[in-house]
């Protein structure tokens, strides 16, 4: 019996360190800010002005541009709000996955258009999204609120 207890103790993951938890929260806040800001800009800026900032915005339908804005907003809200409220915190994990996928698509999209200047931002956002995904999925998950 004691041997079984010994094995069980090794299977338990140690509590995440304070620095890791702070780092994950910082990444979530930063991602939320970037995605929500980007979403609001793409949603509210007239297309001609937006195209001056982002050439692609003038080369695709307004529906496409505004749809990307909604995806950005959903990702930004989802990466922070469920974890913050502890209401359906698994949604933060899914949002982090969605943000990571979005950045891979954005990276390919921008590189295919010769817009390599924005690639570093996509890579940083991808890395932060993967960090939150890794952290909230396993290392430092958020427990759901008990009602």
TrEMBL record:
InterPro entries listed in its UniProt record: DoxX
Membrane spanning residue stretches: 20-43, 63-84, 91-112, 118-135
Membrane topology note: Multi-pass membrane protein
Pfam families listed in its UniProt record: DoxX_2
Native source species: Bradyrhizobium ottawaense
UniProt subcellular location: Membrane
GO cellular component, one term: membrane
Protein name: DoxX family protein
Protein keywords: Membrane, Transmembrane, Transmembrane helix
């Amino acid at each position: 019996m004691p041997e079984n207890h010994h094995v069980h103790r090794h299977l338990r993951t140690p509590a995440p360190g304070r620095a890791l938890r702070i780092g994950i929260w910082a990444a979530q806040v930063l991602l939320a800010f970037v995605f929500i800001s980007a979403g609001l800009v793409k949603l509210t800026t007239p297309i001609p002005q937006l195209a001056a900032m982002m050439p692609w915005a003038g080369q695709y339908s307004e529906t496409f541009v505004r749809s990307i804005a909604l995806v950005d907003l959903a990702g930004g809200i989802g990466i922070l709000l469920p974890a913050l409220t502890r209401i359906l915190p698994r949604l933060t994990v899914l949002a982090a996955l969605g943000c990571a996928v979005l950045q891979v698509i954005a990276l390919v999209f921008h590189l295919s258009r010769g817009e390599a200047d924005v690639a570093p931002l996509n890579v940083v956002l991808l890395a932060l999204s993967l960090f939150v995904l890794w952290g909230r999925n396993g290392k430092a998950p958020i427990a759901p609120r008990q009602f």
